[in-house]
Fold each of these.
Amino acid sequence: MAASPYDGLDARAFWRTAVASRGPGRLRGLYDPRFPITRDMPVFTAGSCFAQHVHRALKAAGYKVIETEPAPEGVPEDVAARFFYGTFSARYGNIYNPRQFRQLLEEVAGTYSPGHRVWSRGARFYDAIRPNVDPGGYANAKAVGLARADHLKSVAAAIARTRVVVFTLGLTETWEDRASGAVYPTAPGVIADPPAGADIGFLSLGHDEIVADVRAVLAHLRRQHADMKLLLTVSPVPLVATAGGGHVLVASTAGKAILRAAADTLMRGDQGIDYFPSYEIITNPAAKGAFHASNLRSPTPKGVSVVMNQFMAAHQTYETGPVRAPDEGPKFNAAAAATDDEDDNAVICEEMMNDPGLMPARDRAGAAGGGAG
Amino acid sequence: MRVLVLGNSHAATVRLGFAAIGSAFPDVRLSFWGLPGAAFTKARVRRDGQLAPDAGDLPSLRKVSLWNEAESIDLTLFDRIFLVGLRHGFRPALQLMRRLHPLDWGRKSGVTGVSEGFLRASVRGLIDASLAEQAARTPFDARFAAMPAPYPGTPVTEDGPLHEAVTAAIAAHPRAQDLLQLYEAEIRAAHAAHGLAFVPQPPDTVAAPFLSHARFLADPDRDGRHMNAEYGLAAFAALMAHKPPIKEIDHAMGS
């Protein structure tokens, strides 16, 4: 009798031994890095709200995480975080999808100018591309322009130093200016309103668009450094609300599936792209939902800790030799990088504002706390 | 009415004015309890209700008997308590205002452009932290009113031994008046959030943004910060002019 191709495979190849019989924090062999990410490699982070955890965790673990817009000296830590200083490699805020990332890089390069960059509410003016990095906005549109010019220089400086980008794919639903194709992280009316006459509409990105945008992002980055590497993750945080007309669970599942499939397509086509399974770790059935907070969306500190320990353990192989299981490897200190608040108020996520039930009316024009995307 | 003036060396300058205050406010029974700045920030209300110095801090213990009639004081004995002289992160706040410039006001070369909201929030954060620490040491109630440390005297902007670079730079800032308004709005809001009445430095004693008139300095040749008895009287009068809510006074007086 011929041997089955499954005969002799590692225990990790079988659901029974690799998932069902293991504790949710003790999954092994989930991730075989294609390329090293060592502590001396300049790392650029971006992505949806979950990426804030990644940035914080890498920093806490001593990785060389780029920050060209760090908190100014003397500013209280919580204030700096509320205004997105030191939250990502620059203050672009949450980048929920690769179209947003692509347009940022094109704007930095001077090859693209998003339409309707300044939105307003009452007498306050907001950078439509990152409306929550200054929660109360500015007193005038000119100030928004000055701040954006400074920011774009900071992004350029960050990219110039980057060797590896860790990008968390968050959402497929977004809002687009029909004329310029610009996408915005919030819908009109959530934080601010676009100028009269602007044609801003709902856009649901598909697999091929996600793939094309990520490839364009990487092409831009490789103009800086030909050997630029990209580590993709998919946020395990479901949609807070869908504008697509259907049920949020179905929409969220479709969105995550599209992002996960796109990551797979991208990885297959480019040796410089890797995928880290944070989505799988948080949502794996063995966890029985334990890595989600009581809102069934935000990851718990424990979940974030398990994710980052998997990452550290895998990348230790490039620094210290043989692979160690996550529970034997260097420990990521969740307390240093996550929050004890099970509703995860340590990350700032304007997507939360899409659900009026989650936001007191008085806060709808201000910062939103809570994990999403 | 029993009134306690409580605080650090700036509260002690109010005590300098006690004779004049006694004449101006004959119905007030004045008391003072204080310690030098660092020691005062270690004093706290004990479980028995007495405000006392840090028993483990030798300098505090040495100073407490030099400064006060009693080593500890029962805050429940007073109808009103004037907390005087806290700096509320004044110097770090000035440093922030020197290094950061609101783009809402236009570009200023050589400094980091930020939103006015961010500068406000940063200043507020410093004040909040200071107030939270003080509240933990001396829980506030409606009897309390607070007047921060006075702004330094104008000599600190001049060359010489009293020169203070940061204060001088902010006082010379082209938007100094706007910065003062920003700072005072945040300090007022922070006090309100902590349930503590805020009484600003008497306007007549302010010479320019972030600066007091030199004539109120106790020793203008050697000390650019501490004020004299005339200032003490003006400060006390301003604190007395602040009226806490009637209901709260009744409660505090045990009626």
Note: Chain B has ten helices and twelve strands.
Amino acid sequence: MSRGREDATKTPGAAASRSDWHASASERPAGPDASAAADGLRVRYTDLRRGRRVVLAGGELALPPGVVVALVGANGAGKSTLLMALARVLAPCGGTAEAWRDGGPVRQLGYVPQRPAFPSWLPLGQALALHGAPPAVVAVLGLASADGARLLARPASALSPGQTQALATAVALARDDPLVLLDEPFAGVDLARREALRALVAARRARQPDAVLILSSHVAADLDALCDWVVALREGRCVFQGPRDALPSAPGREDGGTLEARLAALTG
Amino acid sequence: MTTRRPAAALAPGSPASAPLARALLQRELRPSRLAAAAGVVAAAAGALGYLLAAGGVLGALSASIERGATPAALPSAALPAGAVMERVVAEQLLRLMALPAALGAAYAVMDRMAADHKQGWLPALVAGGRPALRAVYPPVVVGGVAARTVLLYVVATLAAALGLARGGLPVDAALPRLLPGVAAFVLAAATYGALWGVLLRRHAAVAAALAAAAAPITLVAWWQAARGAPPPHALLAIVSLHLPAIGWAADADVIGQHLRYAALWLALLAAGAPYLVARER
């Protein structure tokens, strides 16, 4: 991680938008320059729109390998829109975003939307197989093995929203995608499952050290526990990207303030 | 808690096309629901056949035939009056059953696609899968709905035939001849439904343009299947603006045309699927 922070400080706190990167919504992001970080991940995005409104102005993120990125911003700042565009879930007419690595685009990624679900008519075991995840991921729900086996035979619709959220996040973390996008993965998840998910994130980092995880959340405790890189959005623009240590201090705080205070000051 | 087990023990994987296709077909062909639907459809169609054969409709049709108002699609060769009457009744019955079936299929396709997008599992799935996953989805949804509709339609036709027979009217000659054409029509309608279903998720203007192109074709298809007669020239003229090849033809050609147009729309859908499926505006 120290290496990531070292790379990042080369662009400390720089706003993501470059003057030469304000493409129209219909344009696809071009590939990165040859001079782009060879082993890092670049995310380039055009103006992202919902309807006619530009939610997030075009820009570029440079993410070192192996970081867990906190994507923060007030409601409506464009966090989900950016993740949707990266996951190619946003219609092309709404703008495009693409991640690049080693000179090539990252085509396959893990994505958990804000309100995830599994096919309701399938037994849970089949639904997990459909997503390419092993049955063992139900362990995240903290069930005894017999209960877990029974759950796998029941319809996916039997899960509560919180269980669905936790399981969908665990499914994304179980695969080996080079980029994982988690849109508010802890929303509605109870404390025990939240702890389990944190453990899964840590285990995944150990298993695939170069993979980049981007997670949006409003819960500072989760971000504090997991993230070492911050991308902050405010009023449709990226206002900060860099290591969390480089976050500006909260106003009036000589010690810099807590992570929550710093993020709140940054994102409004 | 077992959640702290090393994640390395979990086998990596990614969504694949074949399991998705299986899952989508499984949804459409669930035996319990299929059996329940078949029961309702068979009961309704059987009752309809019986009423047509034994009730006032038969009398009205017989009267129209006696006045020389035989539909133009029927062969001009002199047929025994009874045979002509049987065919007219059979076509009337199929018309009554075909239109709801086709509309139901088109609606089911749109409903499935809208629900799959809204529920969130499809976007997550296609994001993690290869591009082929986006291309596989629409044809399989259409195919699944069409398969289910055709199955139900066959059940309805058999039940109607039994009803007609119970009402005193043998229909063994007319039904087999009409069945393939209407099945093709159902498939075409389901295809158009899929096209609209996908496009309506995206851009209203594009959807309206495509609907304007597809609606006259659907109308012609409905006219052919339901009326058993050539559509009005005005309608054909509108359609020919989009697809000049379409026109009235003999039964075999009509079936072939329906299948060709269904294949054409499905091909377009498959080609555009990577840009359309699981997208939000």
Note: Confidence is low (pLDDT under 50) at residues 1-38 of chain A.
